[in-house]
Amino acid sequence: MAHDGRNIDAALGLLEGEAALQRIESPEAEHPPRAVLPEDPAQAQASGESTTYYGLPAIKEPVWIWTVPTYFFVGGLAGACNVLGAAAHAFGGEKLRPLVLRARWTGAVGDALSAVLLISDLGRPTRFLNMLRVFRPSSPMSVGSWILAACGALSGASALFGFSKGLLGRFGDLSSYLAAVLGLPLAGYTGVLLANTAVPVWQGGRKALPVLFMGSAAASAGAFLELIAKREEGAAAARRFGTVGKAAELVAGFAYEREVGTAVERVARPLSQGVSGTLWKTARGLTVASLGLSLLPGLARWKRVAAGLTGLAGALALRFAIFHAGKASARDPRATFEQQRAGQGAEEITGPKFDQIPADYTVPYEGAYPEPG
Fold it and tell me: Which residues contact 6 (CB under 8 A, 6 or more apart)?
């Protein structure tokens, strides 16, 4: 069992045994001791900086491990491959049949690997199954779990039966189109999931982050299928799909960075400093290089390989950059406090309906209403 803070032993709360009889003369004066606190509120206020709770983080740092950003990458690639496979089958004809086959199998394997990565972070397979016990449209995690399960089943059926004859073949083609319908939200729901957390750098980019993930998913799918394509027609189609995705990724990346730092500049610091900043710049540079190689004329093998590898590396680096930026942002209490004081993250309690409450309104005291019956 993984001891990551998500397993709570109820027996730890029982006051029994020999230790229950112990008594202390006086409780500790303070915890943690003032000597080890990161800051003094009086000094922070005197320096003109916003005050925090002694410099301690206001929110808990995400407990996710490396499997989560890898899941973001693999799941996005699989979802975009499902979309490209269905589009190539519908409009490409016989000449794109090898590309369709590779796209379907890549989507099926990617969906299965995504489930393995997600379960690896959860710790136990039963936790993933418990997420499927109910369907909550208001929860990105619940919706995403159902999308992953359904898309995995449909992409697997499309890969196994897609080119069979008769009824099985039609069933496989239908499964491919349905997997494509779910492939787009599979590529972008993880961005919605991150944006719905309290982490400032994720919450601050709630509009651009899902678009960034979908663009990066298309870029990685196009780069991978171009890399493994054996026919020129398939490589060209994958390159066009990937080129659009790379351009969308770059535009959405600039929009995300601008959106995060507009209200509070400090919130965007993880995108330019530390490990996350290095990964963010590396991801952008790799994507620009891959886009430039894809736009060069000619279909030389070396160019396809270089464009595919740099595109995949850029998409993977992007996911890890966002992941580490979230961890760094959660450790920065000033980013959390300043974002809230700027009016972000609390729109549900500052809407017009609360502005209509009369100024002289008071909460009724207990017993103001008669008992039922």
Answer: 63, 123
What pLDDT, in 10s, does the model give residues 35-87?
556 666 666 666 666 667 777 888 888 989 999 999 999 999 999 999 999 99
> Would you call 59 exposed, middle or buried from its count of C-beta atoms within 10 A (0-12, 13-18, 19+)?
middle
Report the distance separating Cα 296 and Cα 304, nearest Å: 10
pLDDT one-digit tens code per residue, 280-327:
999 999 999 999 999 988 767 888 899 999 999 999 999 999 999 999
DSSP conformation letters of 41-57: HHHHHHTTPPP-STT--
DSSP 372: P
Alpha-carbon distance of 204 to 126, in angstroms, equals 33
Backbone angles phi, psi at 297, to 5 degrees: -70, 155
Classify the phi-psi angles of 141: left when phi > 0, otherwise alpha if psi is within -120 to 50, otherwise beta. alpha
**Selection from 254, 258, 246 nearest residue 288 by Cα:** 246
Sign of torsion, CA 105 111 116 121?
Answer: positive
Rounded CA separation 150/211 (Å): 22
Return d(Cα 319, Cα 330) in angstroms, integer.
17
Q: Where are the alpha helices (DSSP H) in the chain?
A: 41-46, 67-91, 97-122, 125-131, 140-161, 167-195, 200-203, 208-228, 232-263, 274-295, 301-330, 333-341, 352-355
